[in-house]
Fold this sequence. Notes:
Blueprint: E1 2-8, E2 11-13, E3 17-25, E4 38-46, E5 67-71, E6 74-75, E7 84-85, H1 88-91, E8 95-96, E9 98-108, E10 112-115, E11 118-120, E12 138-142, H2 144-148, E13 151-160, H3 168-171, E14 185-192, E15 195-204, E16 215-219, H4 222-229, E17 252-258, H5 268-284, E18 304-318, E19 335-337, E20 342-344, E21 354-355, E22 364-370, E23 377-386, E24 400-405, E25 408-411, E26 417-420, E27 429-435, E28 449-455, E29 464-470, H6 524-537, H7 544-554, E30 558-565, E31 576-583, H8 600-611, E32 619-624, E33 626-638, H9 644-659, E34 675-677, H10 678-686, E35 691-701, E36 709-710, E37 721-723, E38 729-733, E39 738-741
Parallel strand pairs: 31-32, 33-38, 33-39
Antiparallel strand pairs: 1-2, 1-5, 3-4, 6-7, 8-21, 9-18, 10-11, 10-12, 12-17, 13-16, 13-18, 14-15, 14-17, 19-20, 22-28, 23-27, 23-29, 24-25, 24-28, 26-27, 30-31, 33-35, 34-37, 35-36
Amino acid sequence: PFQVEASGEKGWVVPDSVQIESIAYTPPPGSPPSQVPLQALRLTLGFGVSSPPIAALPGAESPWPLIRLLLRSVWKDDVRGGGYATPYSLFQSLALERVLIEASVVGLKDLRLENDNGPVQAGKPFEPFGFSPAAGSGFRFVHPELVVKRLDRLETNLEWMKVPAANLVTHYKNYPAVSANDSFTAKISLVDHQLNIKLVGEAALFDADDAGAAHKISLLDIPAKIQASRPGYAYVPEFAPFGLADPASWPRYWRWELNAPDFQHGAYAQVAAAKSVALATSIAKGEKPNAVDYQVNPPYTPKLKSFSVDYGCSVEIVMAPNDPQGYGKSEERIFYRQAFGAAEIQPEQDTGLYRFLPAYGYEGELYIGLEGVAAPQSLALLFQMAEGSANPDLEPQPVEWSYLSGNRWVSLRDGGILADSTRDLVQSGIIKFHLPEAQSSTLLPANRYWLRAAVAQNCDSVCDTVAILAQAVSATWIDRGKAPDHLSQPLPPKTITKTADSVPGIATISQPYTSFGGKPGEQDALFDTRVSERLRHKQRALTLWDYEHLILEQFPGIYKVKCIPASSMEPGNLGKVDIIVIPDIRNQLPFNPFEPKATAGQIAEITDFLESHISPLAEIKVKNAYYVPVRVRVAVRFMPGCDPGFYKIRLNDELNRFLSPWAYKESNDVVIGGKLYANAIVDFLERRPYVDYVAELKLFKNEDGLSFEPVDNTGDAFGYRVQADRPDGVLVAYHQHDIDLITETRFEDEKFIGIGYMKIELDFVVN
Length: 767
C-alpha cells in the first residue's frame, strides 16, 4: 500500500527492495508502560552498492536524510465504481505509540584513517600501526556516520596482505611470547571529547586458523559495554562539524591500540644475535645443529589491503510528549506530507494521540487564502453560489469554519463568525468574519491568512461555488416613490458602479450579479386574487390547492408548485404529501436553465413556513422536481446549399429550444409530469427552413441518472411518445442529440439499421 523513498543529494532515491509486514512488537525492558505486545508495521528497505547515497535533500529545511512514505493509488474494480483511490481508510484510525528506526550498513569504506605516523589514504594498502609497530602503537578511524549515530554494533572487515604464513607461530617460531595467531591483539576504544572509553581489551587481529584469510572484528552491544566501562556516561549522537582532515581532531573517533606482544620489530636484532651465538656455540661443541631451530625470520609488518566497516544503529521514538525520552527530546522528527505542504506531527488536541497518518475528519474542505490581512480585523466575503446545485434530498450539513495558526486549524465557532446569510453555503450571501491573529504555518503557502470551510459528510448538500469576492457589502434599494415598477424584475448585473456620494478609500465598486429579494407593489388585480385565495384557504393548508397557493403567495421566487399526495391504498402513507417546487429563473443568474432547482435554503424556508399552517397529522416533504433528460436521434437531409457542419449544430440548438423552451427566456410553461410526442418533434424539425426531410426518429430518456434507455414505441394507442415514470418528473432536453446525415437523394432505410449504425450506451443494447 506504500511507496517508500529515501532522500538523496539529487532528489528522492527509490530502494532496490521494499518489504512490508505486520508484526507483534514487544518494547524493551524499562520502556514506558504500554499495551504489550503492540501491533506494528515493519518496513524493510534495501539499498544496493550502486544506489545513490542517502543524504539530505538539496535546499530542504532539514539537514538530515529523510524517509518518505506515500500511500499508493490503486484502481478500484468496476464493481466498486472504478477510478483510483488510496487505502487511507485502512490506516486512518491507527495511532503511533513508538517508532523504531534501525539501520544496518555493510562495507562503509569512505573513512578518515590515521596512524601514529600521520594520515593514511583510504582505498590503498596501508600499515595500520605504522612501519615499525610496537606495543602501544595506535590506529584511528572516523566517519560522520559513526559519529552522528548511536551505534549498537561495529564490525571491522580486515583483509591483510603479504602475510608470511597461515600460522604465524611458525613464522615467529624462535620469538618469545607468540603462541597462536590470536596472540596479536588490539585494544579498541571510543574517544569522545578526549575521554577514552575502553570497549574491548584484547581483540584478535588475525583469523585463528589462517592469518591470511579475511577477518572480522565484531563489537556488539556497544551501549552496554560503554555503561560497563564508564557508568553514567551518556552515549548520544554527536552533531559537531565533520570537515576536519585529522581524525584525532574530531570530537569523537574510534581508536585501536596494539597490545603486547607486538610484531617484534624491536626484538628482531636481539633475537637474531642471540640465535647466532647459540648456533656458533653448538657448532664449536661439535654438535650437528638443525638450522631451522636457529632461524629468525624478519618480523611481519601488518599491512591492510582493504579496510571497511559494518555497523548497526537504532533509535526508538516514544510518542509521549511528557516522557523524558518522548518525542521531541531527540533530533528525530516526523512530518506529515499533505496536499499543499508539510508540518511536524502533533498530538490531537482532544485525545493526545499521534496519528499514523494525518487526520482528515471531513469529507470535503475548502481553503481560502487571504492577502493583506492585518489581524485582528473583520472581513466580509461574498459567496456567490450556484443556487439549486445542492442536493436538497440530503440532510443539510453545518459548515465548520476555522483559521490556520501554527499548523493547527483553530475553530471560528466562538465569535469568529459575525454574520452568515448563506445558511451554511446553500444560497448566495455574505459571511462576516472576525479574524484573530495567526502564527506562521507550513501546511499551506506562506504570506497568506488561511480560512477553511469543512463539511463532515454529504458534501452535495452544499451548493457549488461560482465566485468568492472580498470586501462585500449588501445594498438595499429605498423606494422614494419615483419608480413604482422598479422591483418588477431583478436589477441586472453591473448596474451599480459607484456610490451616490464619494467615499474616501473606496476606489471602485462592482455589482457582479443580479439583485435578489425584491417584490413589486401589489396591483389591484393581484390584491383581489390574494384576498379571494385568503378567504378560501384561511391561512390553513388542508387541500392540495391550499398548499400550492400558500407557497406561491409567500414566496415570489417560486414559479410553480405541485402537490402529490401519497397513495390512499397504503395506510402507512396516509397524511404524507410531497410538494414539488420549481423556482422562477427569469432574469436570475447564475442557474441551470435546463434543470431549475430551488436552493436548499429555499426548501428549508418553505418547510418552516408550512409547519405553522398544516395539520399536526400531516407529514410534508418539499423537494425539487426530478428532471429526466430526453435525447433524440434522427436522420436529417438538409436543403441543397446548406452546410451540414453549420446547420447540424444549429438544428441541435433549436431542438433544445423546442424541448426546453423555458431555458431560453421564452414564456413557455415548465410542465410537471408532461409528455413529448414524436409527431410533434417531427413537425417541428420539418418546419425548419434548412431541413429537407427527416426519418428514423428515436427517443431515449435517462430515468436513473446513469444511462439512456430507448423508449418503447409499441402497444401505445396514443402514438410514439416519451413521458416520465415518476409523478414529479419533468422532461428536459439533453444538451447533445444525435443527428445522422442523409447524403443520398433518396432515403434508404437499410443504411440506418444494424451494428454499424447503432451506438453503444444509446440504441446498441445487449440483452
